[in-house]
Design a protein that fits this description.
alpha+beta, three-stranded antiparallel sheet, 13% strand, elongated, disordered N terminus
Length: 582
């Protein structure tokens, strides 16, 4: 806009102090190569001992259409959006673009708001010096705001040369967006604020309200379950000898063993088999019957070799064995070697292993088993859960907080019903905005007992942490934020506010359940409970079978004796004795 009578144009310089931002530039500004900024406000006016480099550099306006197909670099003007400028055309180097970002916030007053307090992310004190409770409106803070985000942004302000003016988000935006968080974000997008300072997740829904800074961090959400318990039941001990192989492998081994027994029966069937003196069809039937009778015995011998590492399946030195029989014995021996080696390699570990009951080892198991996944009405979390796990059985409660769910999960179902209105199998927690820093998760001050829960498996999802920022300030703000993140300030502030992990780091570590005896490599009698019980059961069955066989044998013997007596009846009168003369 050209000012009447001044032969100059009034423009707003990007990055200038508000009192000097509006300047009047000459009509010839930018036309033809020249140092057009020399001695002009707001950055190049004299006297200056060390003026910015761009003040003496030559540049001019250029035709954007023609320059687009040339090797000359150009940039679009922020003061005149329809014009493009180029330093390269005038054999100079563009330092203005970098200066605008580095100095874009110098001397500015940035309108900031803390929507509500939340320790340790952004909090403050009351007039008596006491820490305000979480969710207290930001304007009630007396003195300087404290916490990870305010202290980080204070360092950004110092580096960039601006100051903060803390304000209250407008009441209308809070009502329209349904809360102080979204209300503050909306105010930034509408120009009522320049930035909101608090732990905030960047989501697609929120990005419709405002531009955000670069992510300062990425917060991971995790599934939380009641602390798994050690299974000391007798049943679990009995099953340990079978745990080196899974059920599919056991089934495969059994099938191969039976198959081997069948093959051996067939090979035996090729040898001459007694036909009990019968010939023709009767003889063939007798031989087939003899083969069928040998089948169970051959299967038994195959199984016996598995467990005895060598049984009486045949003498390798027997010259009467056929080539197929020898080949079968050789391959079966190789199979036994591999099977026993693999089994014994894992058996010791399985016998000393502590069985831990883990209802859900990951979220997919939770989905498959239709577990009750309890959650608050936290919009950002619900949005992500519905995106990544649409079939997860969510149990939403609008009146409880994350810490309530955390502690309810470690109690009985009646208390869960009382607190959440549901029975809960699992819930969620964020690492950054949850169990790493939250007082209620770490028994800070002894006021929050440790919940009997564990964080399990890989992250469910992650969300970037950023701050809603004025579009005009975003480039300069990100420049200084990135510098401080790279210098380690962000991590340093996290270490400063991270509480002592009095309840541990909450992660599920199955190895921590191992007993001292197991960790020392010493096995107890209980370790061998499975093998002992299996042996005892088999011995008992053998005794019972022996008794039954003995009883059957006695019955069969009595029947045979009676049959013999019936066939050879004793005479009723005995012949007279012959007297031999003396």
């Amino acid at each position: 806009m050209w000012s009447d009578g001044l032969n100059c144009s009034l423009v707003t310089w990007p990055g200038a102090e508000p009192s000097k931002a509006i300047q009047c530039i000459p009509e010839a500004y930018g036309y033809g190569c020249g140092a057009h900024d020399s001695q002009l406000e707001p950055f190049c006016a004299l006297p200056q001992s060390d003026p910015p480099a761009f003040c003496q550099q030559s540049w001019c306006w250029v035709n954007a259409t023609e320059c687009r197909s040339s090797a000359v670099t150009m940039a679009r003007s922020q003061m005149f959006p329809d014009l493009h400028f180029s330093y390269a055309t005038c054999a100079s180097t563009d330092t203005w673009s970098a200066f605008r970002i580095e100095r874009g916030l110098q001397g500015r007053v940035v309108r900031a708001a803390i929507p509500a307090t939340w320790y340790p992310y952004a909090f403050g004190h009351d007039a008596d010096g006491n820490v305000l409770p979480d969710w207290t409106p930001g304007p009630e803070i007396v003195g300087e705001p404290m916490g990870i985000f305010p202290e980080f942004m204070n360092a950004v302000a110092e580096r960039a040369g601006f100051t903060f003016e803390y304000m209250t988000p407008t009441y209308g935006s809070r009502v329209a967006q349904g809360g102080s968080w979204e209300g503050c974000i909306s105010d930034v997008g509408k120009g009522n604020l320049d930035i909101c300072i608090q732990a905030m997740y960047v989501t697609p829904k929120r990005e419709k309200l405002s531009l955000f800074t670069m992510p300062l961090d990425h917060d991971t959400a995790h599934m939380v379950i009641p602390t798994p318990k050690v299974d000391n039941s007798l049943g679990s001990e009995i099953l340990k000898p079978f745990q080196p192989f899974d059920i599919q492998l056991w089934a495969a081994i059994l099938a191969v063993t039976v198959l081997t027994g069948v093959v051996l029966t067939m090979l035996t069937g090729n040898k001459p088999v007694p036909s009990d003196g019968k010939s023709g069809a009767a003889g063939r039937s007798a031989r087939a019957l003899a083969c069928m009778k040998s089948l169970p015995n051959n299967i038994y011998l195959s199984v016996f070799e598995i467990f005895a590492n060598g049984g009486p399946m045949g003498d390798a030195s027997d010259t009467s064995l056929s080539l197929p029989h020898r080949l079968t014995m050789l391959t079966w021996g190789f199979f036994i070697l591999i099977t026993l080696s693999a089994y014994t390699a894992n058996l010791a570990a399985m016998l000393s292993r502590v069985n831990v009951k883990v209802p859900f080892r990951n979220v997919q198991e939770c989905v498959d088993k239709r577990c009750a996944f309890c959650t608050t009405d936290h919009a950002s979390t619900l949005e992500q859960l519905n995106i990544f796990y649409p079939t997860l059985s969510l149990r939403e409660n609008e009146t409880v907080g994350e810490d309530d769910l955390w502690h309810a999960l470690s109690t009985n179902t009646s208390y869960q019903q009382q607190v959440t209105g549901h029975t809960c199998d699992a819930t969620w927690s964020y690492r950054f905005a949850g169990h790493r820093f939250g007082k209620m998760y770490n028994n800070v001050g002894g006021n929050f007992p440790c919940a009997d829960v564990r964080v399990i498996d890989a992250p469910l999802f992650s969300l970037p942490l950023g701050l809603p920022v004025n579009t005009e300030m975003a480039a300069a703000m990100n420049h200084h934020i990135l510098h401080l993140v790279n210098e380690g300030l962000w991590q340093e502030l996290q270490r400063k506010y991270e509480p002592a992990q009095l309840c541990g780091d909450h992660r599920f570590d199955e190895s921590s359940f191992s007993s001292d005896a197991a960790s020392d490599g010493v096995m107890s009698v209980r370790t061998f409970a499975g093998p002992f019980l299996i042996l005892a059961a088999c011995l008992l069955m053998a005794v019972v079978a022996s008794i039954c066989n003995g009883s059957a044998f006695r019955k069969r013997t009595n029947v045979d004796v009676k049959t013999t007596l019936d066939a050879n009846e004793v005479p009723q009168t005995l012949p007279q004795s012959t007297v031999i003369p003396a």
